[in-house]
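Sequence only, no structure available. Ideas?
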Amino acid sequence: MLATILGTLIGVGRLSKNWLMARLTAFYVETIRDIPLLLQLLFWYTILQGLPGPRTAMNIGDVVYLSNRGLKLPTLDWEGAHTATLFALLAGAVGTWLWNRHARLRQEATGVRPAVWPVALTLLIGLPLIIWALLGAPLHWRFPPCAASIRGRRQC
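Reply:
I predicted one. Tokens follow.
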């Protein structure tokens, strides 16, 4: 999924009218495409094997750990209230799109365009915040196991 998003952004960058953006993304694409895949795999394998093991993971900040097994980040304890808030955000996006369409049609008919930003602000920020507050969605983070420390020493 990340490759799809990255590829789309780089593809759009290559089609950009901005000269610098188009040249940078073209340089990236041509450089990556000219390096054989096996060489790229060996490069990343060597980099990952050079990282420390899980018990001696590199501490980035106080809650992010990097080891040869990957990057460990804090995660949100997801509950039903978070799902409802996400649906409220999606409903707000649809409502904003519909209001913008209505405003455009009214402008074409009368020449006066109603303001879109107050409705968009209310639907995209206010509605999810109200749902989040009403359902009591907690902001409880689950930290990687290495984040627990006893007397300054990490226990992984």
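Residues 49 and 68 are 6 Å apart (CA to CA).
Hope that gets you unstuck.
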